[in-house]
Amino acid sequence: MSQTNVLILRAAGTNCDLETQHAWELAGARAERVHLRRLIEQPRLLDEYQIVTLPGGFSYGDDIAAGRIFAAQLQRHLIEQLRAFIDADKLVLGICNGFQILVRAGLLPNPQRVEGAEPEGGNGAVCTVTDNDPPGFQDRWVTLFAHDSPCVFTEPNRIYEMPIAHGEGRVVFSNGKSLERIIEDGQNALCYVPPGVPPDEAVTMANEITWLGGRDKSPTGAASYNPNGSHADIAGLCDPTGRVLGLMPHPERFVTRTQHPSWTSQPKREAGDGLAMFQQAVKYFQ
Amino acid sequence: MPVYRIEIGRRNEQLGAAFDDALRLQLREAGLVELKHLRSSRLFFLEGVLTRPEAEQIAHGLLVDAVTELAVVLGEDEQPTCNPVEISVEVHPKPGVMDPVAESTLAELRAEGHAVDLVRTARRYVLTGLVRGDDVLAAVTRVLANDCIEQVVLGTAGVRPAPKPPVFDFELRHVRMRDLDDAGLQTLSRDGHLFLSLDEMCAIQQHFRDLDRDPTDIELEMLAQTWSEHCVHKTLKSAIVYRGAPMGAVADQSSPVEIRYENLLKDTIARATEELIADGRGPECLSVFVDNAGVIAFDDDFGIAFKVETHNHPSAIEPYGGAATGVGGCVRDVMGCGLGARPIANTNIFCVAPSDWPQDVLPKGVLHPRRILRGIVGGVSDYGNRMGIPTVNGAVCFDPRYLGNPLVYVGCVGLIPRDKVQKAARVGDLVLLIGGRTGRDGIHGATFSSAELTDTHADEFSHAVQIGNAITEKRCLDAILQARDHESGCLYTAITDCGAGGLSSAVGEMGEETGAVVDLENVPLKYAGLRYDEIWISEAQERMVLAVPPANIDRIMEIMRREEVEATVIGTFGSDDTAAARLIIRYGGIVVGDLDMRFLHHGLPKRERIAEWRPEMAERQSAGGGAGVSPAGETLERLKSLLHWPTVASKEWIIRQYDHEVQGGSVVKPLGGPGNGPGDAAVLRPRLDSARGIAIGCGNAAHLSDVDPYWTAVASIDEALRNVVAVGGDPARTAILDNFCWGSCDESRRLGAIVRACQGCYDAAKAYGVPFISGKDSLNNEFALHAADIDDLLEVMGRYAERDQRDFPDGRRVFEVTARRVRQNSRLSIPGTLLISAVSLIDDVGTCVTSDLKQPGNQIYLVGGLPRINYSPAEAAVVHAAVADAIKRGLVAACHDSSDGGWLVAVAEMAIAGDRGVELTVSDTSRIAPFAECRAAYLVETADPRGFETLLNERNVSFDRIGLVRDDQSFTWGDQAAALAELRAAWAS
User: Which of A134, A230, B709, B847 has the most beta carbons within 10 angstroms of its beta carbon?
Assistant: First the structure.
């Protein structure tokens, strides 16, 4: 069994790279942090890796908009190489800022094209990640449900707990048609669900998804289970192949039990929910 | 050259409505009651060789989010459209103010190949409703902008090129001072914003008379900075004769004593550390008091660095920028500690006036407390979040006396390899300046922070206030760590940050032994037009200075290039003078400053001062046992009102804005348990590959300063220690930091108060076995009032004293003393405030406990509990050790320290955190009253009452079994009952 190699792509303002590296190593992979500048200078470096991860942070200060400048550099220098990387049956994971970058660079949700699904005068984007509603940065724990989707990183119908920490995590679609298509193709890999909901109920809830998600089913605002007003309660999107996943929550922040906010009142467990996502990806290559 | 204005607004009213609505509410709150609707947009101004289609392409390709936003591009002198019923306001940063978005955008556009010379940003608000333009202008200026750094324009500023900065013509200037008389020297000190005393000015005059020349402007500025209270702590280091009441748990306060301190700081705080180290007590100290931060051993490989700073004056004038740059500066202190530590946690403690202060009774020059708190929370969270440093521990204290001088304490903890703790620049090393560019921002920060505030400070010192750019600092950090851990060894011999005093302080300190030669024309500037002395003393943010051996310079420059950090060699350590280390400053080859390092660092005349103290406010008769007895049947009502008290009430709205989990090391979070209740200290695992941890806590008992600052110090240390012990920290391996914030110490009584606090620090540190490893003080926290403002101010303060009488029984007497002083000298001074921060080692974080109640049927105990003053710290130390031991032995299911509001509040917090009811079986006549303030007290839940009681009995620690955890949601006290939800609602609102 050969080692899975992970490239953690960082730039100025990336700040979750060390713990993301640690999570990959716990999952059995070998992970290396590489600066965006270096990859632009030597794009062939990609050949040595099976997985590319874009970790969380505030790349280039999130100036103009979250992930915008990082994405502009990817589009200018590396987009063809990254598309080839994905086509070669390899994986890409974007966490938080990494998710925002993947969306802005057009790698997510990257849907099968649909006539008339584009905003007027837009650049072809059907979806964006924008300011939270309610507005402002929030660090808190959320509960996620993984749909039965092509996503390589998630286990279908599993519940995950992990924290979010962002101010621009609201997944917004330009129109209902685009969103429907995404749901139809199972690209809404992860969605927010109320805490404590058993998986079978979560499935029912997920099937009742509306344009604004489940926000009408529970109190809105800061206490809502959907922390940022994402359409259809979406927390993470995969591309049609399932090999690219972007999510706002931080799986790398829940790999050991003492990272959970209530670990002292819970029965002992081996690992955190987030670790499973990294392990699933490593398993893909075995 | 063409200029374009790109306005970016929302495509759809629904998107971002919540954001605009929050702004609208703030404006309504500020008086625009008829405001119906507000729409905000962002403006970008581009100058360069650009065609309109190119500008359109930039707008739609880079600046706009096509799904949510629309862009409108205007060329030079084209007018933005505005509906006649709408009022438009634009907010533009003043020239020279840091604009990170503009910088990033410019860099990206250039990388894309656009010939852009300049990018500026601004924001626009379009309002509708029955509002007048002038009112809008005033309200926006007050609430949504800060005219200290921003210009607010009614209508539009148009589409015009930015004004060009004036050109600087070099002229070497000397300051005639050799022939000045005393009055002349004092005028020079005041008008030049030097804030030096007459004897200090005389010492400088004599030095230059001996040299037979006048100082240059840069030399005088540098001396003023190096000798400022902010940089050298001359008050606490002076020789002091104390006369007054004896200190400590002495019964007879009436027979005065006289004590002489040669150097107050050395004879109290530093002495406690020296003696503890000599006795082998406390954690292993690797570096104390000599560096930017103190360092203790963490494990065989690493040490823990800890530094706490204040940034009070800048935060009073520009809360967001002041607090953010405070964080940035403290983080740089840790990055510049030893050969560089990696920041792993931030802390913050704010002291502000009550948030419900009336809007219309603000002395001239004072921002509203709510605006201040909102701003500083925003600044702290933005900077820490962007740097990727978790903000893990903090507190907010409220007192009307912080109205003119809010306190902003920011702390930073770092992880440093044990072999990188020492540093020393060597002769021949290059002076390498890295990070942000130098501008006119922050000039006079060190001297500014050493003065009292007045209403004109916002104008006079607006350049002392800065906006930070956290990403520039993060880049520096990434680069420094690579250079530190380079395969061929650390690439530099010393490092420090440019903080207060800028290059002047940084190079002055690093070259104290070697001397240095600096060429100022090599310093990269943000814009043209800076004079040489401005370059030298500018406190522009995010800059660090490294001493690099010439053999390593290419390798380190390559790292800087890869990490996108600007780095420039600006000089060399060492000067040709073999007799003395000299600091030679040149501009374009001409020597503009030449100072003897010995005079710079040791020429400050030593002062001897008199300190006095006699008690002004006797301790309440009822303090301790009997305090806060409430009429029968009202205990739980009183509990609810205390949970709602701002100091106790939930800080969730603040905590959620901080990323407290980044870096993945979080073990005990600020809010925890199923009910998200308040915790004590934060616990972190600094190395992800190890179970070893640290606990970080803080204590602040400023409210005792009016009674006796000695006990403020002891109580603050006790509280910080309780914090860390309650989560599983080891009291025998705990280090502490002191941060004094005081009013002016020119008065002998104020100085007497500080002396008592310092002596309290010594006595408590020795009794508890906790060494100080670092400290800092900020004096002159006073606000000079206009006579016309005094009556209104005192009336409001009187109302607060009346209202809070039950929860804060000292309030009335404190108010009377304050009112007398304010009428005497027209100054509002803060209460003497001493923040103690603590860091404690934990062998295995798996043994940590939290405050949330765990299991129905478990017993709850009140452990320890000594009077609030006049107790024996040695006795308290026994309580701390016993609780720590019980936790270590696994006897404790939950633990919480009894703090503000008394022990019943702590029990309620445990119930809220655990989402479990409680049945209390004690009565008001038990050993300690439920709302009494006491020391060394813990609330403990245990599943093993027998084992726990045995341990406490063996240690002779007093305790009460006070109740048990219920299996439902009710909270009962004798025959009174409340639903847990009621308590939570009181605490959360």
Answer: B709
In terms of CA atoms, which chain B residue is nearest residue A16?
B663
If you write DSSP's letter for every residue of B149-210 in order, what string do you get? TEEEEES---S-PPPPPPPPPP---B---TT--HHHHHHHHHHTT----HHHHHHHHHHHHH
Whether A46 contacts chain B with CB within 8 A: no
Calpha distance B352→B322 (Å, rounded): 14
CA distance readout (Å), B522 to A169, B433, B538: 43, 10, 15
pLDDT of residue A223: 61
Complete DSSP assignment for B324-354: HHHHHHHHHHHHTSTT--EEEEEEEEEEE--
Angle, alpha carbons A197-A202-A207 (nearest 5°): 155
List the CATH number of the domain containing A34.
Answer: 3.40.50.880
Can you give the pLDDT at residue A216?
Answer: 43
Nearest CB among A64, A72, A265 relative to B674 is that of A265
| CA B244/CA B577 separation, integer angstroms | 50
Rounded to whole angstroms, the Cα distance separating B612 from B243 reads 5
For residue range A152-170, what is the model confidence (pLDDT) as tens digits? Answer: 999 999 999 999 999 999 9
B68 contacts in chain A (CB < 8 Å):
128, 130, 172
| Residue A277 structural domain | 5-284
Distance from CA of B17 to the nearest CA of A (A): 9
Quote the distance between the C-alpha of residue B853 and its chain's center.
Answer: 32
> What's the one-letter identity of residue A118?
E
Contacts of B278 (CB under 8 A, 6+ apart): none
The answer to whether B966 and B918 have CB atoms below 8 angstroms apart is: yes
User: Is B562 within 8 Å of A16 when comparing Cβ atoms?
Assistant: no
Instruction: Examine the residue annotation and report whether A151 is marked as an active-site residue of this protein.
Output: no
Low-confidence ranges of chain B (pLDDT < 70): 251-253, 442-465, 619-633, 806-807, 923-925
Query: Could you tell me the strand order of the sheet in which A51-54 lies?
Result: A30-35, A5-10, A51-54, A91-95, A244-247, A234-238, A190-193, A138-146, A159-166
With CB atoms and an 8 Å threshold, state whether A172 touches B672. no
Q: What ipTM was estimated for this complex?
A: 0.94
User: Which amino acid, A136?
Assistant: G
Domain count, chain A: 1
Selection from B45, B28, B46 nearest residue B37 by Cα: B28
Of chain A residues 185-204, which have a CB less than 8 A from chain B? none
Full-model pTM: 0.94
A96 is catalytic: yes
**pLDDT tens, position by position, B786-804:** 999 999 999 999 999 888 7
